[in-house]
């Protein structure tokens, strides 16, 4: 029996690859136990138990950014989190730790190192986060999603994707997906999503452009995010929902997308061959622009700055593109050629190799 601890969480971008790997572990022959490590505040609190996995939790401890009272108390709080994870590792006889970044990964890496338990780092973004940068130095193996990510010992595995998403690539779910969202499968469909937390600029521009899409005969599936403050709405060829638990069907129902450029989003679009306009999140270290780089260079997506995604952009650039089936088909083919659909298998093989060599 092998016991795995998968650490990560916060947003869907961390939780979904964790769950994809968990599913791959359970699907392999033999007896295996999978434990997830996250926080009480992230999406993992709901998604991990829903998928049938045990969630162990640690406090949410952001890295101090400036000298203040919190910075003074951080070392002791972090040590307490590490001690808590050490207890989890020992009680559950964990053989290997896999971290996906986020608040739970840093104490998991430290605890594993102190107990001489091997750990593997998976970096989703093109620009690594702090926890994974530090963790990679002592990791038994490091997996990356994008080819240009700079980390020591990096192996390109791609993004672990759920089987439901991979199944979309076959192209047989269009009617089922359209029925699920009450869409017409014969009409061109635009998927709009800012990720699990939403995107203010995207939401505002799409809301202001609804009549333009209607006049062009394009139906819109708009996922606004839990924090958008916009109510669900069904209006002719426009569907607005706060959160989508069936992103596989959202992908299957769509011909084109407008979205942020989170690592999971970019990876899923490429895996299923969904062309897109990508609008990178303008705050932070700019990792989303780098996430989009390979797909844009391959011709499977178009990049537009957040400030430039306006109703004028929709009318002058997006609508002409959506009205060009030949161009959309070409972009879809280019996207699909770039996509990796076996990220879960690749990462699992790397993790199992670490277990065998330990």
Short description:
With 358 residues, the chain is α/β, with parallel strands linked by helices.
Task: Indicate the topology.
Layout: E1 2-7, H1 12-27, E2 32-38, H2 44-50, E3 54-57, H3 69-91, E4 96-99, H4 105-114, E5 119-123, H5 130-136, E6 141-144, E7 154-156, H6 163-168, H7 174-180, E8 189-193, H8 200-208, H9 210-215, E9 219-223, E10 233-235, E11 238-241, H10 247-252, E12 256-259, H11 263-272, E13 276-278, H12 287-298, E14 301-303, H13 311-322, H14 325-338, H15 343-357
Parallel strand pairs: 1-2, 1-4, 2-3, 4-5, 5-6, 6-7, 8-9, 8-12, 9-11, 12-13, 13-14
Antiparallel strand pairs: 10-11
Q: In words, what does this structure look like?
A:
With 358 residues, this protein is an alpha/beta fold. It folds into two domains: 176 residues, Glycogen Phosphorylase B (Rossmann fold); 175 residues, Glycogen Phosphorylase B (Rossmann fold, 3-Layer(aba) Sandwich), CATH 3.40.50.2000. Strands 3-2-1-4-5-6-7 form a seven-stranded parallel β-sheet, with helices on both faces. Strand 4, helix 4 and strand 5 form a beta-alpha-beta unit. Helix 3 packs across helix 4. The radius of gyration is 21 Å and the shape is globular.
Would you tell me the structural class of the helices and strands? alpha/beta
Distance between the termini: 15 Å
Order of helices and strands: EHEHEHEHEHEEHHEHHEEEHEHEHEHHH
Chain-averaged pLDDT: 93
- Radius of gyration, taken over Cα atoms and rounded to an integer in Å: 21 Å
CATH class of the largest domain equals Alpha Beta
């Amino acid at each position: 029996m092998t016991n795995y601890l998968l650490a990560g969480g916060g947003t869907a971008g961390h939780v979904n690859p964790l769950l994809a790997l968990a599913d791959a572990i359970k699907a392999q022959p033999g007896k295996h136990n999978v434990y997830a490590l996250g926080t009480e505040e992230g999406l993992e609190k709901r998604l991990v138990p829903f998928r049938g996995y045990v969630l162990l939790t640690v406090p949410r401890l952001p890295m101090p950014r400036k000298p203040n009272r919190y910075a003074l108390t951080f070392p002791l709080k972090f040590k307490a989190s590490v001690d808590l994870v050490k207890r989890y590792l020992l009680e559950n006889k964990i053989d290997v730790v896999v971290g996906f970044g986020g608040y739970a990964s840093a104490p998991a890496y430290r605890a594993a190192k102190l107990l001489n338990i091997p750990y593997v780092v998976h970096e989703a973004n093109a620009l690594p986060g702090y926890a994974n940068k530090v963790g990679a130095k002592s990791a038994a193996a490091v997996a990356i999603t994008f080819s240009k990510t700079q980390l020591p010992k990096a192996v390109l595995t791609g993004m672990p994707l759920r089987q439901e998403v991979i199944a979309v690539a076959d192209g047989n779910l269009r009617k089922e997906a359209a029925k699920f969202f009450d869409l017409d499968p014969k009409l061109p469909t635009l998927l709009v999503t800012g990720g699990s937390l939403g995107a203010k600029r995207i939401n505002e521009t799409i809301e202001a452009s609804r009549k333009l899409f209607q006049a062009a005969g394009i139906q819109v599936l708009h996922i606004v995010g839990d924090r958008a403050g916009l109510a669900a709405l069904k209006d002719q060829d426009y569907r607005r929902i706060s959160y989508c638990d069936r992103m596989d069907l959202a992908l299957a129902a769509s011909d084109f997308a407008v979205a942020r450029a989170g690592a999971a989003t970019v990876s899923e679009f490429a895996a299923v061959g969904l062309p897109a306009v990508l609008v990178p999140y303008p705050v932070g270290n700019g990792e989303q622009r780098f996430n989009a780089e390979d797909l844009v260079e391959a011709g499977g997506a178009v990049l537009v700055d957040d400030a430039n995604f306006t109703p004028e952009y929709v009318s002058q650039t997006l609508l002409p593109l959506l009205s060009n089936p030949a161009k959309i088909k070409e972009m879809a083919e280019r996207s699909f050629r770039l996509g990796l659909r076996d990220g879960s298998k690749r990462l699992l093989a790397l993790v199992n190799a670490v277990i065998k060599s330990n």
